[in-house]
Amino acid sequence: MVKQICFDYEHYAALSELPEPDRRLVAEAEQASASAHAAYSHFRVGAAARLRSGRILRGSNFESEVFPAGLCAERSLLFYAQA
């Protein structure tokens, strides 16, 4: 059985073209990347999600000394949301 997922999206050529709530979400993700622990890859990643209530949650990646094991920013955000 073949399943298919389709979705519509809009393409923006510049961050300034995004609606203000989405620009804020990008800014929150950028701020979250500042708290990332990327001692091995040096690739800091931040993630942000807006809840239905309007509250914004953030997460960042965390690398461990057994690299590449660690937590990605999106997973950290979801763990925080569940806490």
TrEMBL record:
SUPFAM superfamilies, per the entry: Cytidine deaminase-like
Family to which the UniProt record says this protein belongs: Belongs to the cytidine and deoxycytidylate deaminase family.
Protein name: Cytidine deaminase
GO MF term (any one): cytidine deaminase activity
CDD domains referenced in this protein's UniProt entry, alphabetically: cytidine_deaminase (cd01283)
PROSITE patterns, per the entry: CYT_DCMP_DEAMINASES_2
Gene Ontology CC entries for this record: cytosol
Residue ranges of domain CMP/dCMP-type deaminase in the record: 20-83
Gene Ontology terms describing biological process: nucleobase-containing small molecule metabolic process; pyrimidine-containing compound metabolic process
Transmembrane portions of the chain: none
Listed PANTHER family: CYTIDINE DEAMINASE
